[in-house]
Each structure stands twice: as structure tokens, then as C-alpha cells.
Amino acid sequence: MDNKKKILIVEDDVYIGDMLEEALLKEGYGVVRAYSGTEALYAVSGRPDLVLLDLMLPGLDGEEVLAKITGMPVIVISAKADVDSKVGLLLGGAVDYVTKPFHMKELLARISVHLRNASAAPKERFLSFDEIMLDTDTHIVTIGPQKAKLTRTEYAILKILLQNPGQVVTKSFLLDHISEDTPDCTESSLKMHISNLRKKLREGNGKDYIEAVWGIGFLLRAG
């Protein structure tokens, strides 16, 4: 599988976006592009490793997009240079703020640092959502007081969904990241594993936690 880091560029200025893409590809990164706030939220469901986010966007603006992104570092790139804007965005969830015009060498260094920090972040032992609790040390899964008996593949799928609550997880993201806990899943068998997992979670408390998002992937929601 392709393990190179993937970066989402959210920028409606084609010239700046092309310049960023060229520089990132030269550094060996994978690149995804979005030209509006709405496109950005769709692209985020593919779980890039880092987001470069412009603020002045058609549709949803950068601040609105930032508020909806979780679980990945976001570097804001903006012409706004005032301190209050920078502080507000950093407190709002951005890991960094780069003012236009910027030096590409400096931006690439910041990207490298934040990707390294994200990789080094300590992993949580317990993952939970509603009444579901997963222990990453013992691999025990409970729904309320009941223990769920999951296969290795079902456990691996649930773990990824719990790490991305309330967000659509694409099929390709699941298949790319599932190998951490199990080698036994292919595109053709994924639907069957999801169906079995959904049934076992439902047996715990009657709730249907996994929603299929047609043509995209799966979403963990309160049943």
C-alpha cells in the first residue's frame, strides 16, 4: 500500500494552488485539491494527513471549514496578518498560521514538523462513542455492560470508525489503514465485514450505529 503522506490543499486561487501542489509533489507528498469550502469538507472525508487551508473561499469560508475538521493538523494560509485573526484561528483548532506571501521553504519545514508531531502523538488506550467502549490494549469491546465478540477485522474497522466519530470514513481510507490490526480485508469482503459488525453492535443495545454513505464510505452515528 502507498504510505506516503497525503496533503489536502484548500485554495480557490488556481495559481497559488498549482504552486503548492508542484512543491509538495517534489517533496514526495500525495496531493488532493479543493477549491471551495464545500469541496473541502467532502475531501476531508478521505482523511488526509494534513490540510493547507485558505480563508477566503467561495461557499463556506475557511473559519467555518476549520470548525468542522477534527483529527488532523490544519495549517491556515491567509493574507490576513493581524494578530487577533491569528490568535482566533489557532484557538479555533489550527496548528499553525502562515501569512501570504510566504516562503515555500519555510512552509515545507512547518508541514514536516506538524506531520512529525501528529505521528508522535500518544495513542489513546480507550476509544468510546455513545455506549461503545474499545480498549486498544486488550482489544476488548463493550456495548454498555455487555462484551461484544468481534473478529480481528471487525475490531479493526470499529477502531478506525471510533477514531473518526461523526465523520464519513471512505472505503479507501478503511482499506489503507485496516492493516494495522488485521491483514484479512479486501474491497470485495469489506461490505460483509461491515454488515457483521453492524449486527453485533445492534445486538448489544438495539442501536444501529453504522450508517452507509452511498458511494463514499461509512459513518459512526448515535443509533
Provide a concise account of the structure shown.
The protein has 223 residues and is of the alpha/beta class.
Which stretches are low in confidence, meaning pLDDT under 50 for 5 or more residues running? Answer: none
Ends apart, CA distance between termini: 33 Å
**What Rg is obtained from the alpha carbons, in whole angstroms?**
19 Å
The count of β-strands is 12
Instruction: Give the SSE string.
Output: EHEHEHEHEHEEEEHEHHEE
Q: Which structural class is indicated by helix and strand composition? A: alpha/beta
Strand content: 15-25%
Mean pLDDT: 88
Task: Explain what this protein looks like in three dimensions.
The protein has 223 residues and is of the alpha/beta class. It folds into two domains: 6-120, 3-Layer(aba) Sandwich (Rossmann fold), CATH 3.40.50.2300; 126-220, Arc Repressor Mutant, subunit A (Orthogonal Bundle), CATH 1.10.10.10. It is built from eight helices and twelve strands. The strands form three sheets. The protein has a five-stranded parallel β-sheet with strand order 2-1-3-4-5, sandwiched between helices. Strands 6-7-8-9 form a four-stranded antiparallel β-sheet, covered by helices on one side. A three-stranded antiparallel β-sheet has the order 10-12-11. A hairpin with a 3-residue loop joins strand 11 and strand 12 (217-220). The longest helix is centred in the last third of the chain and has 19 residues, at 187-205. The chain is elongated, with a radius of gyration of 19 Å. The model has no long low-confidence stretch (mean pLDDT 88).
